[in-house]
Amino acid sequence: MPSESRPQASALARRVHGWSCQAFPVGMGTGAVYVTLSDIKEGSRTLTTIETIFFFLNIALFLLNTMMLTAQAILYPRQAWRFIRDPVKGVFMPLVVLSFATIIIGIINYAFPMGHVSIKVLYALFWVYVALALVTCFPMLMIWFNNPHDLNKFSPNFAFLIFPMMLVGVVSFNILQVMNPSDARAVGVLFVGYFFQGLGFFMTFIYIIIYIIRIMITGFMDGSQANSAFVTCGPPGFTALALINLGVHAQEILDIHGLVTPRAGEVWYAASVMCALMLYGLAMFLFLFSVLPYCFKLHQHLNEIVGCWALTFPNVGWINATRVLGDTLNISGFRTVHLIMTIIMLMIWCILIVLTTIAFWKGLIFFSKEEDVLRDAVYVNRVSRLAGEKNRENASNSAHQSQETLVFPSHTGMHVDPNDQNMV
């Protein structure tokens, strides 16, 4: 008899099985480029074209990641559930919502001016984002906090579980930029933005404190975790950016609608600028605290290239806050710093996209071992087969039971089982 051929997993199956939410930072890093470019004061038509290209590239990456993860959940549910419960990879799940936030900002910057979307659509997208942030963050927080975690292995990436709620404030002020301040809906967007920005920042600030305690015990993080140190720049940077912009809109909205006090808008704006300046200082400190040990702590392995995308999107907050503070305080040097950091952001993206493509082509990332794919595929097939056999068994038992049961005409009121010993 000819020997049976050994089952094999195709390259596509290994890709689907090995995909994870760690792919979303690539799209978010792409979104970080056009978000920082859009804040350059002296914009041009060429610059807008470059931003639009990055915007559509971000959408393409978002769709690719979503389709691959959906296919994985259908074909390999055990692997999908394994990633969600993983203490390291599971924290990247909320990045799906963060990627959606960058797309909303892109729609506001590039689709709305062209008349492709209306205020009603943007307002609806805002509430969709808020709902997605809540639906994603709270279940993941319940899963994560249901298990103990070692302080010596703590990573700032764990703060990703809060990031979607924190970024509501950023999405909020972007929506308010195109809304009429006299619109009653603007009040809700403003207050919700402040509410979630405060919630998100104070929760992530606790994570930053734990991070400081961890490096006091173990020293600076090395290897792939050296990249995650830049995540600490995100909460204070984005909060500083959101507070100033929300304060600008509060000046008009609170005054027009006669809320709180006649001078509430001015007070909110002044307080927002003061708090933003302090948070900006914290973000700058955490950035330097991350970049100085980075060169001698990072392991230069292509299989860890995905973690390097943390160099991009967490830094968008303080980079754009630099430009906003420059306008608010009339300091031209801040605008220069913003321009330099935006150029560096673009250069880092170019380097990372090349290295990520090489790692992807060589199968170093998002590529499962063949035996892992076959094991999960066998499990799925076994479950399907057992379910089919169970359904057939139930159907057979039902048919057998119906044949053995004799039912007299309804007018007799009698029901007789042939197995009844009293029958003659």
TrEMBL record:
UniProt keyword list: Membrane, Transmembrane, Transmembrane helix
Highest taxon of source: Eukaryota
TM annotation in the entry: 53-76, 88-112, 124-146, 158-179, 191-217, 229-248, 268-289, 339-361
Principal subcellular localization: membrane
Pfam families noted in UniProt: SLAC1
Membrane-related topology note: Multi-pass membrane protein
Keyword Lyase listed: no
The keyword Transmembrane is assigned to this record: yes
Gene3D superfamilies assigned: Voltage-dependent anion channel (1.50.10.150)
Subcellular location(s) per record: Membrane
PANTHER family: MALIC ACID TRANSPORT PROTEIN, MALIC ACID TRANSPORT PROTEIN-RELATED
Protein name as it appears in the record: Malic acid transport protein
Organism encoding this protein: Marasmiellus scandens
